[in-house]
Amino acid sequence: MAAITPHKTPTPQVSLEQWAMFIAVVEAGSFQAAADKLLKSQSSISYAMQKMQQGLGVKVFEHKGRRAELTNAGQLMLQRAKDLIHAANAAEKVAADFSTGWEPQIGLVLSEMFPKHLLHKALEQFGQQCPQTRLEIYIEVLSGVDDKLRSGEAQIAINNMIPSGMVGEPIIAMDFVRVAHPDHPLHHIGRSIHPSDMKLHRQIVIRDSGSYRRENRGWLGSDQRWTVPSMLDSFELLKLGFGSGVLARSIAQPALDAGELKELDIDGGGTLQTSMSLIFADKANTGPAALLLAKLLKEAAKNDKSGRM
Questions:
Q1: H or E stretch including 207?
Q2: Mean pLDDT for the chain?
Q3: 244/219 Cα distance (integer angstroms)
Q4: Which residues contact 98 (CB under 8 A, 6 or more apart)?
Q5: Which of 111, 163, 171, 200 has the lowest tally of Cβ within 10 angstroms?
Q6: Residue 105: what are its φ and ψ, rounded to 5°?
Q7: Where are the domains of the chain?
Q8: Which CATH class is domain 173-273?
Q9: φ, ψ of residue 169 in degrees (nearest 5)
């Protein structure tokens, strides 16, 4: 059998220091200004940029007077250069986190739908194993979870939607039920309820907490709509008979058992199902404390004996 030749990673022609100088020249506007900013000589900046262009095989700057302006190739290189520096800084941060043991602070963002008893189980273990790490917990609705991940405020999340470009894995299945007070007219129409019936009555919907994308959970097009900030607010209004709406079964079940709410007999079935996923904003650069919390959340969901939420 022929020997397998190990794959060799090509050696970059341009160093990280040269990329950093390139960015500095662009931001400062000239070689001299970049040299002043980096506390280097202008000749060292000029030499580094000359070697960089030789390594790339393209010209990235054009000189117009004292100013250094980007060529078309240089404009293409700029964002890639920033990405390289960002990746290098992120890798160094992870190394620093591991060298000290734990990150000083991490952020966790949860969909409000995630069962709190599972969060509490994970937090109990996390507090014992990682007492020195500050933890910021955010509870959001719909795209509000995405906002916290993309802003960097949270490193991990639990939600039923995985943002593009991020990694997630399902950890728990959840049921949602459409309910109303037992005396609501929809319970007394004498047949299965059609979507057109729902539109004739007030619906309680939950507002998207995201900054850019606005969605409303549970709305079926009724002109009579009340929008509330959370599922718990919806729960309280539904128990008072102010409309119909969708609740997580884990939230609705005590009121269903007590006769305070009743599932609507929807034509085709009124139970909705979804999976909640554990999501990493940047898994490759996630530190040890965030990884531990993610592991504990997965274990809490896996070991839960209450069945489907």
A1: strand 203-207
A2: 87
A3: 10
A4: 287, 288
A5: 200
A6: -155, 140
A7: 16-100, 105-172+275-302, 173-273
A8: alpha beta
A9: -140, 135
pLDDT in the model for residue 244? 94
Give the helix ranges, DSSP H, for 101-190: 116-129, 144-151
Q: Which has the closest alpha carbon to 294: 150, 142, 135? A: 135
pLDDT at position 214 is 54
Q: Decide if 16-100 and 173-273 have a common fold.
A: no
Residue 9 has pLDDT above 80, yes or no: no
Residue 15 identity: S
- Rounded Cα gap, residues 257 and 195, in angstroms: 26
> Does the pLDDT of residue 97 top 70, yes or no?
no
Sequence-separated (6 or more) residues with CB below 8 Å from residue 154: 107, 108, 109, 136, 138, 148, 281
Give the C-alpha distances (Å, rounded to integers) separating 294 from 59, 169, 301. Answer: 46, 11, 11
CATH code for 16-100? 1.10.10.10
Q: Give, in degrees to the nearest 5, the angle at Cα 202 between 198 and 204.
A: 100
